[in-house]
Amino acid sequence: MPAAAPLPDSVLGPQSSPVRCQRHPGDLAGWRCQGCGAALCPRCAEERRVQTVELVACGHCGGTAQPLLIHRGVVSLARRLRGAWRHPFTASGLQLLTALSLFLAAVSWMTRTAFLLARPPLVMLYGGVFWATFFGLVRGSARGDTSLEAPDFNDIFQDALLPGLRGLAAFAIVASPALGYVLLAHQDTGARMDMFGWFLLWNIPPALLEDPVFWLLALAGALWLPMALLMTAAGQPPWAPLDPRLGWRMLQGLGRDYWVATGALAVLAVLHAGAHVVALGLRALDLTIISQVLAEAVTLVAPLLAAHVLGLLLYVRGDAVGYGVARDYLEPVLGTTRPRQGVAPLGGTLPTAHAPEVSTAATRAQETSSQLADLSAAVEARDVPRVMELYALLGNLPALRIPPAHHLFVGQAAATEGNFPLAVQALERAADVAPDDPTAPRALVMLARVLGERMNDAARAEEVYRYVLHRYPDTNAARFASERVRPTTGTSG
Question: In this structure, are 260 and 204 located in the same domain?
Answer without folding.
Answer: yes
